[in-house]
Amino acid sequence: MVHLFFNPKTIAIIGATADPRKFGNAVTVNLLENENLQSEIFPINPKSDTILGLRSYPTVLDVEKNIDLAIVLVPSKVVPSVIDQCIEKQVNRIIIISAGFGEINEDGKRIEKEIAKKSKDVGIKIIGPNCVGIQNIDISMNASFVLTPIKGNVSMVTQSGSFGAACLYEMWWQGLGFSKFANLGNMIDVNLTDLLEYFIEDENTKVACIYLENVVDGRNFYNKLKQLTLKKPTVVLKGGRTAAGMKSASSHTGSIATDYKTLRAAVNQAGATLCENLMDYIAAIKAFSFLPLPSNKKIAFFTNSGGSAVLFSDHLEEFGLELVEFKEEFKEIIDPHLIPLVKKVNPLDMIAGATGEHFYHITKAMLENPEIGIVVPCAVIPTFLEMTQDEHYKAVIKAWNESGRKKPILPIFLSGNLLEPTKKIAEKEKAPLFLSPREAAFAAKVLVDRMMLIQK
Amino acid sequence: MVHLFFNPKTIAIIGATADPRKFGNAVTVNLLENENLQSEIFPINPKSDTILGLRSYPTVLDVEKNIDLAIVLVPSKVVPSVIDQCIEKQVNRIIIISAGFGEINEDGKRIEKEIAKKSKDVGIKIIGPNCVGIQNIDISMNASFVLTPIKGNVSMVTQSGSFGAACLYEMWWQGLGFSKFANLGNMIDVNLTDLLEYFIEDENTKVACIYLENVVDGRNFYNKLKQLTLKKPTVVLKGGRTAAGMKSASSHTGSIATDYKTLRAAVNQAGATLCENLMDYIAAIKAFSFLPLPSNKKIAFFTNSGGSAVLFSDHLEEFGLELVEFKEEFKEIIDPHLIPLVKKVNPLDMIAGATGEHFYHITKAMLENPEIGIVVPCAVIPTFLEMTQDEHYKAVIKAWNESGRKKPILPIFLSGNLLEPTKKIAEKEKAPLFLSPREAAFAAKVLVDRMMLIQK
Q: Could you report the per-residue pLDDT of B341-369, keeping only the tens digit for each?
């Protein structure tokens, strides 16, 4: 049902324009600048003959071919008549990006209902209104006015377009790529559950993530969420968890926000990963996108920074997880690769002089030890003893690559303005990078939670 | 007592070397490369005549001048004899950077005690052993083997050197500058309380921050912390809050970590800001370093991103704070500066089309409204309608500068890989930048907490 939105052969942009001060321009540019997109684009604008080098049509009715997807960007008062034309043209799918409907007043809600009914009667599905659009990065389609992210295995459905964009840019910065992106706006037709259904079947979606404020069809949503979660890790962030947040959410979407207690129970019951802030949300998505699940929940941590070992131990215990105790055989294995002063305990403080070479051997030994489920290397990037700023991360990833990436690693690199060389390696290697002890401990928790769900 | 450590006229580096594979080199380079440092430097190394262009002395006894500060970097087994020479030379202060003492075994603890006793008998104060050193950025003195941060108003004392370095680099990335930095290592003499005493008097320290694992003199620590907090905002992070963390801390410093419940009660009672993770710690330091205190606790939030408004509202309520309700007069003031669709409520969702110009006028109006104590501008950086990527932040800071920076603002900019231009402005303007709704809400909480402490 939703599939065709993401895979249209023909796209009409109603409200396309060469004027860069309009959203109709941003969407047109985004669709045209991705040269790999195979879909045929038809700009619709009665005031132009050509737009950005393409022939422009006065109305969608003037296009000779069938239209799979019409994207509507005209002012709200013109939208109803444009929808009538789309119905007459028998377009298959419509995305209404234009705002100024149910989110502003009762009159807007009334118009939304009329549009929804008319379209439903003829079997046309609608996303929107009041949204930023959708993207299918697999086929290089950016049918939105936000930037095209990098390609990857994460698919997101969000009730806030700009917050979705913020996640997209943040994930880009962290080397995380997208498969599908959908902002649903006021949801007069296609809703969150429809997208969950799509993500269940979509092969390129390995990790699903949701930002939501209100759920309209509780039972159905829960059932699909459960199905999706059993198949793929699913990360959920709910806006409007408090009275103040719910009030703000109602003002945002024009709907009554869903009660958090109910939603939390449903998400937990379905086995999805529930987050309560942006940082946790990104950390969970990052863990699932980059890493395999562990085969056991015992964690081994090593570092060149004793304080970070202490903080990580604290966060781990708070999340109900434990560091494994090293056996004598393992101590013998790591002994030749440690500076003499180092105590062979977990967390393993390899002290400030530890080099990339030390990190390589310890990572390798921990990856090879079947009693360790998750390996957590942690470094404060050194600026002394001739060490280079990326050697520790490089060494960790080398050992991980050689092991076939079968065990999850959560490399924590604490270094603010010195991080850039390490970040470059992470991008190139498509490997994860965690930025604080708490972030990595949270990632360990979500991986273990999912391992236990799958084992049940 | 501590003052002379940070303001020595003469410094001997015992274990100075031209060999870049040694810590003694890193410290020597750090001291020499800051050209503004007025202190005279004396490298001590029996195997060299000159080191990095300076005359080198076989022992500290061979230096003609009095030595205010001796920095010891020789292997641990040589340290006792070097201390004897320092005593004979009557140096004033000693920093022992060398590791391999109480943190590794009982023998190390015994040697520590001997050194401490001998020095105490002749009135020499010691920092360390097992530390990265200290810095006084005001006089361009970096007596440590970690990098020199930017100059500012934050002073830090830390029990973990590498974690202190991690904070230093993270704060650098966030445009936050240092006045004093001290890592105390095993604290055989100078302890946390001594540093708090120094921060109370030190004029350039506007914000004090502490990372600690164990407190040796509870009552005295509490009294000094209370005095310091009444004078200056003080931010505390405790490593070893859980059983696992405490175990790890004992392994780290060789001492028994302080119980968290007791410490938390003391810190709260003293009125200091207690944080439980790195991100909160940096957020609190950032708020106090960049911002004045509010005159009331009512908060106003505006944004181009509805979802971010919802999340901020949630976090604010969780921290016990509230958004102010806009009065009719205020709605009239802001009305001409809003896109017609915008609802004039707090949080104010100015929708995606809001420009820098809109942000400027709303910031200005909120700064001028005495019923608003803290202004929170929030943007997802737009990539459409010809907006530039830094215009929103620029506009906010322009209004803040024009108002004389008398009211705190907490600008949240959500944009990952698009953040760079905004970050550059923040650095240039020495203005704060918050990276998530939760971070800004936490910053609001610590400012309000301190406002209430001061008003009491």
A: 899 999 999 999 999 999 999 999 999 99
Would you call B318 and A386 a contact, using CB atoms and an 8 Å cutoff?
no
Query: What pLDDT, on the 0 to 100 scale, is given for residue A253?
Result: 67
ipTM reported for the complex, 2 dp: 0.95
Q: Is A177 on the interface with B (CB under 8 A)?
A: no
Q: Is the pLDDT of residue B418 over 80?
A: yes
A:B CB pairs within 8 Å: 269
State the CATH architecture for A291-455.
3-Layer(aba) Sandwich (3.40)
At A54 the three-state DSSP class reads strand
CATH architecture of the region A1-132:
3-Layer(aba) Sandwich (3.40)
- The predicted structure's pLDDT at residue A402: 98
A83-112 tens-digit pLDDT:
999 999 999 999 999 999 998 889 999 999
Q: Does A102 touch chain B (CB under 8 A)?
A: no
Superfamily for domain range B149-289: Succinyl-CoA synthetase domains (3.40.50.261)
Q: Quick check: B260 and B241 in contact, CB under 8 A? A: yes
What superfamily in CATH does domain B1-131 come from?
Answer: NAD(P)-binding Rossmann-like Domain (3.40.50.720)
Q: How many angstroms separate the CA atoms of A366 and B367, rounded?
A: 55
**Rounded mean pLDDT of chain A?**
95
Q: What's the farthest any 2 CA atoms get from each other in chain A?
A: 80
A236 contact residues in B (CB cutoff 8 A): none
Q: What is the pLDDT of residues A131-166, one digit of tens each?
A: 999 999 999 999 999 999 999 999 999 999 999 999
Say how many Å lie between the first and final Cα of chain B, rounded. 31
CA end-to-end span of chain A: 32
Contact: B308, A349; criterion CB under 8 Å = no
Domain ranges, ordered by start, for chain A: 1-132, 149-290, 291-455
